[in-house]
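User: Can you fold this complex?
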Amino acid sequence: MPGDLTRVEDALRASVRTEDPFLTEIASHLILAGGKRGRPAFAIGAAATGTATMGPVSDDVISGAVSVELVHLGSLYHDDVMDEATTRRTVESVNAKWGNLQAILAGDFLLARASEIAASLGTEVAGLLAATIGRLCEGQILELQHTYNPLRTEAAYVSSIEGKTASLYATAARIGAIVAGLPRDHVDALTQFGLTYGIAFQIVDDILDITATDEQLGKPAGHDLVEGVYTLPVIRTLADGGDAADQLRGLLGSPLTLEQMDEARGIVRAGDGLASAQATAREYVARAGEALTPLGDSEARDALIGAAAHLLTTVESIAG
Ligand code: GRG
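Assistant: Here's the predicted assembly.
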């Protein structure tokens, strides 16, 4: 796996090279800035469940891993324009450095390269990646429809995060499994694992927005509250009722100043909403592990289950 991730780095950099040095620079910006490469690792990990020990995966699996990271990157370029974000992956965002028009076009370019690479892996993979780009847009649009809505339901929240985050984890695992030629029941099990992991991942991300510092996140904390995105810990705090819920509801519904955001975060931190959201993340992590039951034993299967458990370690270490 470590060697495979180095191959992903090389292939990612190569995938955005063009004859225009300016476009190459903009399209490379967030690749060079780093990132956890969670989605490529899922594609490789899923493919590697086909063998008991983790040897190097095929070049096609590396291409599949690159295609999903490029879609993720394209979505980040566009997301940062929508949010007017100034920082991403601890560096200046593309929109802040070069402007919105450049960020949108470079994001489109990343999606184009992702599609070209996916097409080289066959029509099933190409169709799947295209459908997933659509799912990301659906999830994001649903989130937009509920911004500044203190009545946002848990069902609406879960639908949105399934689309905007979990669908790409599901597709990362599915593409790795398809390209590795795994049996269909394993392809489906790994897809379910990716989807369930992705939901837990986003819940954890949403908890950290309330509990972590700017330094720990590498971007401003409390951002969701400022932007009017009311996530699971907030929804649960409101549902708990009582004075805390009333106070929180009094703050929500329109853009917040930084002081108001701190106040709102304080209310959520003091109540049971965080612990209850954490318990839900734990349930999704458990379900993710169960989804892999049809697979035989392998180092990769253990590593995927370990990655899911690690989500909880992160959130517990920061909350505690
Ligand atoms: C153009 C594909 C496309 C989509 C348009 C903007 C949009 C619709 C969707 C955005 C979806 C989005 C930003 C979801 C959040 C995903 C998320 C959890 C990002 C953070 O992922 P990490 O922590 O980041 O894996 P790194 O930097 O480590 O890769």
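The pocket of geranylgeranyl diphosphate is lined by residues 35-36, 38, 71-72, 74-76, 78-79, 89, 107, 111, 133, 136-137, 140, 164-165, 202, 205 (CB under 6 Å). Residues 63 and 307 are 22 Å apart (CA to CA).
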